[in-house]
Amino acid sequence: MLASVRIPKTSCEDQFRVVEPQINAEGVHMWPFEASFPIDVRFLTSERRHNVRMNRHEYFELIYLCAGTANLQIQDRSLQFREGDLAVIGSTLYHRVECRSVPPLTLAVMFFQPDLIRNDGGPDTAEYFTPFLFQDSQFPHVLPARSGVPSQIFDLMQRIRAELPATSVRGRLTVKTYLKMILILLVNQYSSYAGTVETFERQQRALERLRPLFEYVSKHYDKPIQVQEAARICGMSESHFMNFFKHTTGQSFLAYLNHCRIERAQVLLVGTDKPVSDISQEMGFCDQSYFGTVFRRMVGMTPVAYRRRLRNGAPPAHAGDHGAAPALLDRVAQTIGFSGLPPVPLNRGQAAVAAVQAARTIR
What we know:
Elements (H helix, E strand, L loop, with lengths): L11 E3 H5 L8 E2 L9 E8 L9 E2 L2 E8 L2 E5 L2 E5 L4 E4 L5 E5 L5 E8 L2 H4 L11 H4 L8 E2 L5 H15 L5 H21 L7 H24 L6 H8 L3 H12 L3 H19 L4 H7 L5 H12 L3 H9 L17 H7 L11 H16 L1
Parallel strand pairs: 1-3, 2-4
Antiparallel strand pairs: 3-10, 5-8, 5-10, 6-7, 6-9, 8-11
C-alpha cells in the first residue's frame, strides 16, 4: 500500500469553499484561469460533511489522491478512488469526488484548457486530447496507483505548479513541455481503449436535449415545476426523463431545481430586506420549513445566519458564503455566479474533436 503524500497545510485550500461558489445553477464550474495561459494546479482538502455538488466544466481535469479514500462519481457511476490513484475527467461529464475517510482528503488537481496546447499547431496536436474526449459510459476514469503512471504524472503536476504563474517565455515553455509529457503518458496508457468521436458527440447531444428545460427553469423557477412538465418540455415520458436527466447530469431533476432556487434565494437574502418567508415563497417553496432545510443542506447554514454573515462582511465558512458582503444586489449576484443560465460552454471541446477528426483524415 502506498504511503500518503504529505502536503503542507499552508499549501492546501478547502475544496468546498473554493470550488462550490464557482458552480452555477446549471452545474457548470467556471475556473478563473489567466486568459493568456489557462492552466492551474492546486492542493485541495475535502471533508465528508462538505462534498462539492455534481458539476461539469469546459476545461480538462486531472485529480491525484494524495491522502484519504473516496468515491469518484461520474454521471450515475461510482468508482473507488484510493491513495495514489489518478482521475482523468473530460469536459462533458458531471462528476464529483466524495470523501469516504474520517480525516479530510488531500487532492492535487490540475485544470487546463486544450487551447494551451492546440494553439501550438501541427496536424497531430489534437491527438494529445483523445483520453479526455472519448469518454463513454465504460471509460476507466481512475488510473490505479499500481500502474505507476499516477505517480509520474503527480511529479510533473508539482513541477508545473512550481513554475506558475509562468510569466516568462522560458517558464511558459517549461510548463507546456511538462504538460505534453503528462498527455503522452495518458495517450499511451489509454491507447488500447477504443473510444470514438461519436461518444463525445453523443454526450453533447444529451446536454443539448436538456437545454430547453434549463432555459425554462431559469424563467419559471418560482412556479411549481413537476417532473411531468419537465418531461414534456424535453419530449420524453416521465420514466425516461428521470433516467435520462440523472444519467446526463448526475443528479435528480429535483436536486437541480432546488440548486437553481437556492442560488436565487442567496441573492435576495443579502441584496434585499425581504422576510425569509417571502423569499421562500418567491423561490417556489410552499413550506418555509422545507426551504430552510434545503438551504441549510446546500449552503451549510440557515437563511438567517447566511444573511447575517454576508451583511457583516464575515469571512465565508461554507459554500454559500461567496466572499465579503457586497453593497448592491448585482454585486451579490456576480459574487455567487448568478447571471441566469449561461450557454453550455462546448466550443473548445467541439473544436478539439474536429481537430482529431481532421488529423486522422490527413493521415
